[in-house]
Specification:
The protein is mainly α. It contains 5 helices and 4 strands. It has helices at 45-48, 50-62, 64-97, 99-102, 112-157; strands at residues 3-4, 7-8, 105-107, 110-111. The strands form 2 sheets. It has a two-stranded antiparallel ribbon with strand order 1-2. The protein has a two-stranded antiparallel ribbon with strand order 3-4. Helix 2 packs across helix 5 (112-157).
Length: 162
Amino acid sequence: MEKHDGRETGKVRFDDPWYDALASGWGELDGTGAPAPAVPPAHPEHERRAGGTADVYLEVQRSAAFQEVRSRYRRFVVPGVAVFFTWYVGYVVTATTAPGFMARPVAGAVNVAMVAGLGQFVTTFLFTWAYARHARLRRDRAALDLRWDTQELTRSVRGGER
């Protein structure tokens, strides 16, 4: 809500990039059960320049910085998923094809199947931790810089409005 003299005026500011409301005409109801009427754009002059922001996002997508962030993501995720999926399928295949091996006791009532099943949980948590660490150390700063640059470029395409 917009404030004027310390009081809320009841107006919602639409320049907030994180504004997360439904767009009128996208299926919500107006309170009487009928579809809500479509709301005209707040700034009709932006409709003429609609391709400008799309061009900014395409330019950012083609940039070397964006390609580097995507490359770092793929270099971690593709091998990680391959190893994790192989480990999971190996566990399932072994459990179905070698029940005698999986029933072999390890310590007391704990058998190979229980150890491998708990290993699935442990590796899930380890992979999640490694992914979050990799993202924080190798991608987050570059992604935030790209996001900032993109916002600045789209702001300049819109005419410097706030």
